[in-house]
From TrEMBL:
<feature type="domain" description="EamA">
    <location>
        <begin position="12"/>
        <end position="140"/>
    </location>
</feature>
<dbReference type="InterPro" id="IPR050638">
    <property type="entry name" value="AA-Vitamin_Transporters"/>
</dbReference>
<feature type="transmembrane region" description="Helical">
    <location>
        <begin position="277"/>
        <end position="295"/>
    </location>
</feature>
<comment type="similarity">
    <text>Belongs to the EamA transporter family.</text>
</comment>
<dbReference type="Pfam" id="PF00892">
    <property type="entry name" value="EamA"/>
</dbReference>
<feature type="transmembrane region" description="Helical">
    <location>
        <begin position="37"/>
        <end position="60"/>
    </location>
</feature>
<feature type="transmembrane region" description="Helical">
    <location>
        <begin position="191"/>
        <end position="209"/>
    </location>
</feature>
<feature type="transmembrane region" description="Helical">
    <location>
        <begin position="97"/>
        <end position="118"/>
    </location>
</feature>
<keyword id="KW-0472">Membrane</keyword>
<dbReference type="InterPro" id="IPR037185">
    <property type="entry name" value="EmrE-like"/>
</dbReference>
<feature type="domain" description="EamA">
    <location>
        <begin position="162"/>
        <end position="293"/>
    </location>
</feature>
<feature type="transmembrane region" description="Helical">
    <location>
        <begin position="130"/>
        <end position="150"/>
    </location>
</feature>
<feature type="transmembrane region" description="Helical">
    <location>
        <begin position="72"/>
        <end position="91"/>
    </location>
</feature>
<feature type="transmembrane region" description="Helical">
    <location>
        <begin position="254"/>
        <end position="271"/>
    </location>
</feature>
<dbReference type="InterPro" id="IPR000620">
    <property type="entry name" value="EamA_dom"/>
</dbReference>
<feature type="transmembrane region" description="Helical">
    <location>
        <begin position="156"/>
        <end position="179"/>
    </location>
</feature>
<dbReference type="GO" id="GO:0016020">
    <property type="term" value="C:membrane"/>
</dbReference>
Length: 298
């Protein structure tokens, strides 16, 4: 059975999930007012890297890297940069909750990459959960187009690109997790995070050159969105790597996978986004399955 959580630890995990969900809602607000995806990732990742680096220096965390760490960190940073760009691109094109639900397939991608690269066989419970997760995702995305009333062709013409970006984000994040697990053992999480965020920021800055450089908000609401996504993301990551270790909680605890539910409610309140009841049911299936996978041991 999973280790029981204190009330403080449980509340902290819920707070992180709330902030990460709110971060994506703020990002959509920024995108709707002139901010490009590359600009958002550049600002968010760059400031987060500076904050975590300051924590590393203040805490005097040892910076000695093994040879495999030097090889793995650039690859992980590149993958997280791609993941960040793709996920925000999905958020810019889809209802926020649907983008996050499609991204929440990353446990399947993690198992896939572990099998392909390291020869690890997927755990039996993951194979059992896979059909349920895919069913939930099919309902959430309304693959038949019935809930939208557009039919399959019209519906996928509208959401197909966004779903593709979300799945690409899940695939790249799954690969990053596999490399992190196998290639960065013994490396302090704060050092890894500072490096990853710095590289992701550079990747996004380079990507912005294909769009004529950085594009900042054209209205005050966009500035609130950009400031909000940066503050929420940076704060969530800072708590994840400074507070959670003291509470004895794993940073990627399954409880935080409730993020799409928070995003669904916040997007409805602040953006006026809503999805059909059958899609909500599908989303709950995905979230519950991912949480079960994360809470299960072995």
């Amino acid at each position: 059975m999973p280790q029981s959580l204190s009330r403080t630890a449980f509340a902290t995990l819920l707070l992180i999930a709330f902030m990460m969900g709110a971060n994506h809602v703020a990002a959509r607000l920024a995108f709707d007012h002139g901010v490009t995806v590359a600009t958002a990732v550049t600002v968010r990742s760059g400031i987060t890297a500076l904050v975590v680096a300051a924590i590393v220096l203040f805490a005097r965390v040892p910076l000695r890297l093994q040879a495999r760490h030097r090889k793995a960190l650039p690859a992980i940073g590149l993958l997280v940069g791609v993941q960040s760009l793709c996920l925000y691109a999905a958020v810019a094109r889809l209802p926020v909750a649907l983008a996050l639900l499609a991204f929440n397939t990353y446990p399947l991608w993690t198992a896939f990459w572990a099998r392909v690269i390291y020869g690890h066989r997927p755990a039996p419970h993951l194979l059992k959960a896979m059909p349920l997760m895919l069913l939930g995702l099919a309902l959430a995305l309304d693959v038949s187009g019935a809930a939208s009333g557009l039919g399959a062709g019209g519906h996928w013409a509208r959401i197909g690109v966004g779903v593709g970006f979300a799945l690409a984000a899940a695939a790249s994040f799954g690969l990053a997790l596999v490399f992190t697990q196998h290639e960065t053992a013994g490396l302090d999480g704060r050092v890894r995070t500072a490096s990853t965020m710095a590289i992701a920021s550079v990747i996004a800055l380079v990507a912005s050159t294909t769009q004529g450089g950085l594009h900042f908000p054209n209205a005050m609401a966009g500035w609130w969105g950009l400031a909000g996504l940066t503050f929420l993301y940076g704060t969530a990551f800072t708590i994840m790597f400074t507070v959670l270790p003291r509470l004895g909680v794993v940073g990627n605890s399954a409880i935080m996978n409730i993020e799409p539910i928070f995003a669904l409610v916040l997007a409805w309140v602040f953006l006026g986004q809503s999805i059909a009841a059958i899609q909500v049911a599908g989303g709950l299936i995905v979230v519950a399955t991912v949480m079960w996978l994360g809470l299960r041991r072995g």
